[in-house]
């Protein structure tokens, strides 16, 4: 009896969480003004995509919808992911000629299960942002056998290139290099850096940490805050309490930079343009760019979440039978300096 | 330990009944950590006086950091202790419900615009709404545990799983940011007061809890239900309601902790806010020497336990232990303390102690 | 060893700290017989069975099993099973989510390479031979409790048991199911199995058993052929009152004079609860002491629990001082001035980890309300007052109640209810498991309180105690009220014959 009851309750809980999921979808899609806003942002990100977006606006010629299964990370994970998910949802609509199904998980095994389900459902394209790089070979082989084409976005995987059509990624190492180059160009007398890392082993962490490690600055402390602002705040707090001096905070995402700044504010350590501590973040959250505009932070590296238009153009090419020239497509990404950023940049690139 | 036993008489004469056996565990743990830090680096105890960016005087140093960051945990430990005592189980959804309550606070403050220039509602209103919401979610857990008789860990697993999604949904999955500096007082400093506000909030919660225990029968009823439900019922109590009540009270504690959490950053990240705090809160209760199977409890000991955990965390940060390795260190300390406080070991030590004192007499 | 005996236990002794549970008990079971093991609480039945099944080790004595020359040593339930001794308990100890066949064979030798088909056909064969209405592939949980019990028996029988112990197997069965169980027992008897049958139901003993062994206070009273032992004698043996002793008919009994026109303090009509009792009528007047009597399991505790609202009330009415009151839970009863000292002190009475003080003030504190806690001074005053009044031996009021002796714990619970100053106090076995001195004190206290106008219902397994305190006795058998005795009827012989069912 108890067991049955428990089962029912778990079901209710699952249904309710699904309802919540639906609710958020409805909420993000409902305001008609939001969709153009992102589309505005996408074309400016890359001139080449402009054409693609226009094409996408027209329904598929043969009138049949292209079935896509999209496997993404949990949109609640970060602002980046939220923007990414919103971008995908705005692109893969019936008006644009797509029938899209979405699956979200931060766990690799759940993602693989979702992929298998999509393959069984007979989708035409599987769009994948993998939680983990390993373990995808067999399921992608299944996809190939079933004639499902796979396009990777945002995250690469350790699998044979022949198993997917294309991979649209950010070059995290390049993001890091851009940032470190910028830091070097500041010409400080000495560099004492607090390095706040993301979840260890993630692509973003590896790329962004790699560049800084290679630069040879004096690292005051190097700690992972696991993308968590609260942890970043404690890490910086600990350095402040220890009395060690530092003049750069290199945080591998905006959330952690924010946490670090909260600790600085508490201890009356000035930060920003022309102040004691240089603050660097990544991902170009809108609120972070606003901090740049206000000169509270110094630098923010972009990690472009708008892959939907790239994917759309690839699908269109494949449908037309056009061959792919390059499997890995690296998106254009910028780094913003507080001294040069404009309101326009904030509006266009903020996520 | 042995010297403690040998001195027992004089110690108990000196401190009277103040140091009961139970509270000895967190105090011992605290002393151990304190001595370790004193030997390793006495500058750990340095407190400096300065002026913060808002021009207000502040005290800073590792000790202040412990008082500051241990607050949420201490607040949660209050509620978790009651839940543990009454239901003999733990609520593992507090992290997720903090996300919900925090999200509600920001939602009320921001209205529909996620980055308002001015607050859309007074902070007190937002906080009260969050209290109500958190208590409703606490009540949900309470109903499952008390009336449907589901294991507390299983019952709260539901919100543990769904809570952060609900939190995101409350704010349309947007990331609201409060620019009003007043809002940051709750997780920072009130101008002119050099001690971090969270400490005062925690102190207020503890004071309210202490008053509630003094001026109501909450403590007696909760313990009675936890020790012997059948007997409590036959003495006119409604054990189900007492359990339910403990979850609602924990809901209130969650709302207060959520206020501090969102105030610290004036923002929220649904998936990581108060992450794993439920484990720390349960740990605080365990470190306080309270039986996780319910029954008698000691609130002071739980709160001490909370600060011991923060003391440990801060110590580990100071020694630059990789923060993703923190849980492993915590686990080691916990194993040590829990084993020490287990009745088996205690009886063993007591036997040794009495043998030694006998020999002394002979 | 006798020829037909399958089991012989000789001079068994077993001591627990402070209790001599078995003192030189002999027990013989022959093949093809159903042998009732009878005795009241604390008589040693369950200890004897636990010694036999290896749960406890014996301190002294020997056990012989047919087919083995030497005395055998049983150190664990597993060894007992190997020796051919199987037990079926009141609580089903099988796995409800496995099939009947799986339950029959689980945990037996060679089950690693289980042949499912063979297992099912074997099971079907066994079930058929014992005439048990179940399918081998059926999930056990979907069978009725009676069938589950029979499957448990079948499993035991199939494991070639020579001795089958049935411990209260009929408590949760209805009459038809009991009939089926008895049929199975008779079949097994015909097959030569020796069955030890433990039950509280006298009727069932006389229906199915061949022999009766009676234990009392850890000692053997005797072994009897069923035909040589009329019910009344059985009851007297169990209770330890020999009917042949004419001396006990001393004509001393208590009389309660009720005032003319007096209204009962408490009166019930057709009250019954989910405790499994038949509807009963009951009343008690101001200053009266009455009691429920009957053998263990006869339903006397369930009656008072129903009055106090401790079990779920299913029907009937209750009046207090002539006015109808609705009592569905203990707090209602408490508000109506009823106090209840429960039968099981450990489970329902004490709140072990709390102090003596908190335990004493508990009921009054609950009555006073959530927002009105006593101050420490008040609580201490109450506690000290009653510790002194009842002579509770405790280091201090702060001592956890669980570290007190049984008698002193009971006094604390008594103090708890006296503190609420009830109009009507129910004392269910207040003297069980406590020292003789305290017993007498409690009886005296009961009479004193009644003299002050309190109405008291007193329940005890010891008839002497009941006669010494009660002026009226409600007699129960097999969960229903079968008589009410007062005045001259209050004698041992009358009580026992009423309990036994009217025969003399």
What does this structure look like?
- The complex is a heterotrimer of chains A (351), B (362) and C (504).
- The longest helix of chain A has 28 residues, at 2-29.
- Chain A starts with a helix and ends with a helix.
- A six-stranded parallel beta sheet of chain A has the order 2-1-3-4-5-11, sandwiched between helices.
- In chain A, helix 7 packs parallel to helix 8, helix 9 packs parallel to helix 10 and helix 11 (286-293) runs antiparallel to helix 13 (343-349).
- The radius of gyration of chain A is 22 Å and the shape is elongated.
- With 351 residues, chain A is α/β, with parallel strands linked by helices.
- Chain A has two domains: 47-170 and 307-331, Response regulator (Rossmann fold), CATH 3.40.50; 172-303 and 339-347, Rossmann fold (3-Layer(aba) Sandwich), CATH 3.40.50.
- Chain A is built from 13 helices and twelve strands.
- Helix content of chain B is 68%, strand content 2%.
- The model of chain B is unreliable at 1-8 and 11-20 (pLDDT under 50).
- In chain B, helix 5 crosses helix 13 (277-287) and helix 5 packs across helix 14 (299-318).
- Chain B is mostly helical and 362 residues long.
- Chain B has one domain (19-40, 54-355): Orthogonal Bundle (ABC transporter involved in vitamin B12 uptake, BtuC), CATH 1.10.3470.
- The radius of gyration of chain B is 22 Å and the shape is globular.
- In chain C, helix 5 runs parallel beside helix 6 (175-190) and helix 12 packs across helix 13.
- A six-stranded mixed beta sheet of chain C has the order 5-6-7-3-8-9, sandwiched between helices.
- Helix content of chain C is 34%, strand content 23%.
- Chain C is built from 17 helices and 19 strands.
- Chain C folds into three domains: 5-229, Rossmann fold; 261-337 and 423-504, Rossmann fold, CATH 3.40.50.300; 345-421, no CATH class.
- The longest helix of chain C has 16 residues, at 175-190.
- Chain C has 504 residues and is an alpha/beta fold.
- Chains in contact: A-B, B-C.
- The interface between A and B is large, with 55 and 55 residues.
């Amino acid at each position: 009896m108890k067991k049955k009851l428990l089962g029912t309750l778990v079901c209710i809980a699952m249904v309710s969480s699904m309802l919540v999921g639906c609710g958020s979808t409805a909420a993000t899609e409902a305001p008609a003004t939001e969709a153009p806003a992102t589309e505005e942002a996408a074309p400016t990100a890359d001139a080449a995509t402009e054409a693609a977006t226009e094409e996408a606006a027209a329904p598929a010629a043969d009138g049949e919808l292209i079935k896509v299964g999209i496997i993404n990370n949990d949109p609640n994970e970060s602002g980046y992911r939220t923007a990414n998910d919103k971008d995908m949802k705005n692109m893969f609509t019936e008006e644009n000629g797509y029938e899209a199904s979405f699956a979200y998980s931060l766990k690799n095994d759940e993602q693989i299960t979702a992929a298998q389900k999509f393959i069984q459902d007979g989708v035409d394209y599987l769009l994948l942002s993998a939680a983990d790089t390993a373990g995808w070979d067999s399921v992608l082989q299944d996809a190939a056998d079933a004639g499902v084409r796979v396009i990777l976005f945002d995250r690469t995987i350790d699998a044979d290139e022949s198993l997917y059509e294309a991979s649209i990624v950010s070059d995290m190492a390049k993001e890091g290099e851009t940032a470190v180059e910028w830091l070097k160009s500041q010409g400080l007398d000495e560099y004492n850096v607090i390095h706040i890392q993301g979840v260890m082993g993630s692509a973003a962490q590896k790329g962004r940490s790699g560049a800084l490690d290679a630069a040879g600055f004096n690292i005051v402390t190097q700690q992972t805050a696991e993308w968590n602002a609260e942890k970043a705040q404690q890490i910086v707090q600990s350095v402040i309490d220890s009395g060690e001096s530092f003049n750069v905070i290199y945080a591998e995402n905006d959330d952690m930079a924010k946490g670090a700044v909260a600790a600085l504010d508490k201890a009356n350590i000035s930060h920003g343009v022309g102040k004691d501590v240089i603050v660097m973040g990544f991902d170009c959250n809108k609120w972070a760019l606003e901090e740049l505009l206000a000169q509270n932070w110094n630098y923010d590296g972009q990690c472009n979440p708008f892959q939907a238009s790239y994917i759309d153009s690839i699908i269109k090419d494949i449908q037309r039978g056009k061959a792919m020239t390059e499997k890995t497509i690296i998106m254009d990404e910028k780094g913003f300096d507080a001294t040069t950023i404009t309101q326009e940049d904030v509006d266009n690139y903020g996520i | 330990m042995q010297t403690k036993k040998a001195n027992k008489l004089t110690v108990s004469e000196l401190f009277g009944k103040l140091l009961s056996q139970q509270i000895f565990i967190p105090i011992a743990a605290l002393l151990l950590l304190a001595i370790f830090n004193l030997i390793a680096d006495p500058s750990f105890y340095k407190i400096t006086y300065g002026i913060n960016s808002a021009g207000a005087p502040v005290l800073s140093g590792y000790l202040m950091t412990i008082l500051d960051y241990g607050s949420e945990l201490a607040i949660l430990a209050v509620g978790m202790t009651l839940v543990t005592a009454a239901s003999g189980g733990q609520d593992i959804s507090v992290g997720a419900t903090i996300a919900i309550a925090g999200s509600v606070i920001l939602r009320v403050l921001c209205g529909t615009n996620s980055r308002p220039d001015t607050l859309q509602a007074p902070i007190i209103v937002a906080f009260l709404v969050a209290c109500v919401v958190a208590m409703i979610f606490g009540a949900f857990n309470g109903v499952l545990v008390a009336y449907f008789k589901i294991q507390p860990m299983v019952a709260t697993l539901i919100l543990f799983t769904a809570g952060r999604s609900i939190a995101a949904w409350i704010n349309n999955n947007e990331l609201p940011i409060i620019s009003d500096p007043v809002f940051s007082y709750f997780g920072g400093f009130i101008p002119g007061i050099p001690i971090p506000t969270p400490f005062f909030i925690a102190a207020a919660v503890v004071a309210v809890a202490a008053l509630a225990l003094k001026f109501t029968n909450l403590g007696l009823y909760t313990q009675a239900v936890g020790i012997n439900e059948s007997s409590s019922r036959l003495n006119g109590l409604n054990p189900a309601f007492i359990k339910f009540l403990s979850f609602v009270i924990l809901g209130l504690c969650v709302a207060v902790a959520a206020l501090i959490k969102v105030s610290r950053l004036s923002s929220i990240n649904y998936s990581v806010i108060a992450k794993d705090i439920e484990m720390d809160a349960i740990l605080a209760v365990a470190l306080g020497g309270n039986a996780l199977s319910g029954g008698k409890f000691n609130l002071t000991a739980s709160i001490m336990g909370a600060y011991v955990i923060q003391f440990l965390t801060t110590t580990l940060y100071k020694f630059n232990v990789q923060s993703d390795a923190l849980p492993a260190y915590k686990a080691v300390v916990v194993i040590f303390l829990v084993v020490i406080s287990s009745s088996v070991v205690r009886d063993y030590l007591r036997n040794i102690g009495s043998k030694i004192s006998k020999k002394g007499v002979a | 060893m006798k020829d037909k005996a399958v089991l012989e236990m000789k001079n068994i002794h077993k001591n627990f700290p402070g209790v001599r549970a078995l003192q030189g008990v002999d027990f013989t079971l022959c093949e093809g017989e159903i042998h009732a093991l009878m005795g009241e609480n604390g008589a040693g039945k369950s200890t004897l069975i636990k010694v036999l099944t290896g749960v406890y080790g014996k301190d002294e004595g020997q056990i012989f099993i047919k087919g083995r020359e030497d005395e055998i040593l049983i150190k664990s339930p597993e060894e007992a099973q190997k020796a051919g001794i199987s037990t079926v308990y009141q609580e089903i100890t099988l796995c409800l989510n496995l099939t009947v066949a799986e339950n029959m064979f689980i945990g037996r030798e060679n089950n690693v390479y289980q042949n499912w088909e063979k297992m099912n056909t074997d099971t079907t064969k066994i079930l058929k031979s014992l005439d048990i209405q179940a399918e081998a592939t059926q999930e056990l949980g979907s069978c009725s409790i009676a069938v589950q019990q029979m499957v448990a028996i079948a499993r035991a029988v199939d494991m070639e048991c020579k001795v089958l112990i049935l411990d209260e197997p009929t408590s949760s069965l209805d009459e038809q199911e009991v009939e089926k169980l008895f049929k199975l027992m008779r079949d097994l008897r015909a097959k030569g199995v020796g069955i030890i049958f433990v039950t509280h139901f006298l009727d069932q003993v006389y229906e199915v058993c061949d022999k009766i062994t009676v234990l009392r206070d850890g000692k053997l009273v005797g072994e009897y052929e069923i035909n040589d032992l009329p019910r009344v004698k059985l009851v007297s043996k169990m209770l330890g009152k020999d009917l042949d002793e004419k001396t006990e008919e001393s004509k001393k009994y208590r009389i309660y004079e009720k005032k003319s026109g007096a209204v009962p303090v408490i009166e019930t009509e057709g009250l019954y609860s989910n405790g499994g009792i038949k509807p009963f009528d009951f009343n008690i007047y101001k200053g009266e002491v009455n009691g429920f009597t009957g053998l263990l399991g006869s339903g006397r505790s369930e009656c008072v629990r129903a009055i106090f609202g401790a079990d779920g009330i299913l029907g009937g009415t209750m009046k207090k001082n002539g006015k109808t009151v609705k009592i569905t839970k203990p707090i209602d009863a408490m508000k109506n001035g009823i106090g209840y000292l429960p039968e099981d002190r450990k489970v329902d009475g004490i709140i072990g980890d709390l102090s003596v003080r908190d335990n004493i003030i508990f009921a009054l504190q609950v009555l006073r309300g959530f927002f009105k806690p006593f101050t420490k001074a008040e609580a201490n005053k109450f506690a000290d007052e009653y510790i002194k009044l009842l002579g509770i031996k405790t280091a201090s009021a702060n001592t956890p109640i669980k570290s007190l002796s049984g008698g002193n714990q009971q006094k604390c619970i008594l103090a708890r209810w006296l503190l609420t100053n009830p109009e009507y106090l129910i004392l269910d076995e207040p003297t069980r498991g406590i020292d003789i001195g305290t017993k007498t004190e409690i009886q005296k206290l009961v009479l004193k309180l009644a003299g002050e106008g309190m109405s008291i219902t007193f329940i005890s397994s010891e008839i002497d105690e009941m006669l010494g305190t009660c002026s009226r006795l409600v007699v129960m058998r097999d969960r229903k009220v079968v008589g009410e005795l007062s005045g001259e009827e209050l004698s041992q012989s009358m009580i026992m014959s009423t309990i036994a069912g009217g025969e003399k």
